[in-house]
Here is the input.
Amino acid sequence: MKRQPISRRTLLCAALAAMVSPRPANSQQGRGPANQEPTDMRIRMTFDGRAMSAMLYDNPSARDFFSMLPLHLTIGDYAHNEKIAYLPRKLTEEGSGPFGNERPYDLCYFVPWGNLAMFYADYRHPGLIRLGRFDEGEQALHVRGEFPLHMERI
Here is the structure.
């Protein structure tokens, strides 16, 4: 049986198909920002006499944030669905990428501004790295105003 030579068109189509075929993104592999595997990294945030706790996820940005604690910052309202606090330095963006299934009470890092974003209502915004999720006292995020914020490891 004689083999037919491969045409240029076939080679070009194969190359294009390889370039656009879906591959796992960094965020879908192990330690990316979409990783929602719980860790033993737990934090407590206290402001206005109220305490909240969160469990951080297993990604480089969350580990970098955890290494900075304890911190004394200011928490304030932003838009209609979140509170924010500015960190003393930017976090690593290693492994950053898009994630889905955004939900209220996610704790995120907003890369362009270098701040924490603590959501208490629905949200969707590019430029976020999810650090973890509030699991206790999260109703405190609904209190309007600007307050001193203390963050520590539990």
About this structure: Residues 10-33 have pLDDT under 50 and may be disordered.
